[in-house]
Amino acid sequence: MERTSEIYSGTSMKRIVCFHLFNDYSGSPKVLKMVLEGLLRKGYRVDLVSSRGGALDELLHYKNLHKHSYPYRFSTNPVLTMLRYSLVQLYTFFLSFRWLFCRDVVFYVNTLLPVGPALAGRIMGKRVVYHYHENAFVKGAFYKTLAAMMQKLAHEIVCVSTYQASFLRRTHGVTVVPNALSKEFTERLVYNPEEAFNRKTVLMLSSLKEYKGTREFIEISRKLPEYRFLLVINDTRENIDGYLSENDLTDVGDKGNLTIYARQGDVASLYNAASLVLNLSDKHKIIETFGLTALEAMSAGLPVIVPTEGGIAEMVEDGENGYKIDVQDLERIKTHIGLLLSDRELYQKMATCAMKYSQRFSEENMISRIAEILN
Q: Pick from 37, 42, 143, 203: most CB atoms within 10 A?
C-alpha cells in the first residue's frame, strides 16, 4: 500500500467516518464502494457505518477500514419501514459520539437518509460532507425535509449532475462530481459491436418499485418475441415471485424470450450478453439524477434508451449514443429497439459513440475530487 505522505505530502490526512443506510448492490453503495476503496488505497483510515451485506462488505479485507454493522431491510409496509429507519437514525446518532474526541475526523454521509449522524456531527463540531445521489425535490415531503436538513447541516454537498444541483437553494459549498466506474469493472466489459448486434438482446436493471418500469419491460418483451430480454431485479427471488404473482405476471417466461434474474453481485457478464440497455423510470414519479446503468452500458459499447429528463438524460445525445424516450410511449420504444437491432450500420455507429462518451468519466478524477473536498 502506498504511504499517504507519498500522495498528499504536507497535507493533514483526515480520518473518514462514513455513513450509508442500506448496503445492497444498487447504484449509490456501488459508487460509495469505489470512492472508499480509492481512499483506502491512498492510506486514509475509514470507519464505515452501514447495514450488513451488499457491495460495501467487499471492502472488509482492508486493514485500514473498520465496519460498524446493524441489521436493516426495507419492507412493503411503509409504517414498518419508517420505524426501522427511525431506529437506525437513533442508533447512528448516539454511535457517532464515539468519535467526539478524535481529531481530524470528517463525517462523510452517503445519500440523504443518514440524517442522525449528520446532526450528531454538527453538534460535535465535525466537518460534515454529503454525497447527494437522489433528487429529493421530485419526491415526497419526507425527502424534501431531509434535503432541507442536508442544506443546513452540510459543510459541503457533492452532487452527481448539474441537473440535480440546480434544485438546491444554496449555491455555496456545492460541487458537481459525476459518478464513474471502477477500472476493475470496466476491464471486464467486452467491447465488440459486431457480436453485440448479433446477440439481439435487450437488458434492463430495475427494482420492484412501480416507477422503475419493470411491468413495462415485461410488456415490451411480449410484443417483441423475436428478441431476447434480460431483466435484473434488485431484490430476492422470493420477493420477485411474490410480485409476479400479485400482478398476474406468472406467465412472463412462456414465450421463452425473457429471463428474470434476482439481485446480482456482479453484472459485467450481463452487459457482455446484451445488445441494448433500457432505463424505463417514470419521470412523473422519479427522475434519475445520474444514469449509472447507462454509463455501465455505454462503457461496454452498448446504446441505451433512457427517459427525457434528469441527469441520465444529460448523458444521452439523441440518435448518437442512444435515444431519449419516456416510458409512457412504449410503442416508440418498441420501434427504436427494432430499428437499432435490425440496422447493423446504425447500431455500430451508435455503439462507437456510446463507448467514446463513456471515456469522459474517470474513476481517478472522481476519487481525487472527493478526497479534496473531504480534506
A: 203
Which structural domains are found in the chain, ordered by start? 4-176 (3.40.50.2000), 188-358 (3.40.50.2000)
The grid coordinates listed for 37 are 476503496
Residues 6+ away with beta carbon under 8 Å from 347:
193, 196, 197, 275, 303, 340, 341
Give pTM, 2 decimals: 0.74
Q: What angle do CA 35, 41, 42 make, to 5 degrees?
A: 90
| Predicted local confidence at residue 286, as pLDDT | 86
Task: Look up residue 264 and give its three cell numbers.
Answer: 446480482
* CA 264 – CA 273 distance, rounded (Å): 15
Quote the CA–CA distance of 52 and 260 in Å, as a whole number.
25
* Among 45, 22, 24, CA closest to 114: 22
Residues (pLDDT < 50) of the chain are 1-11
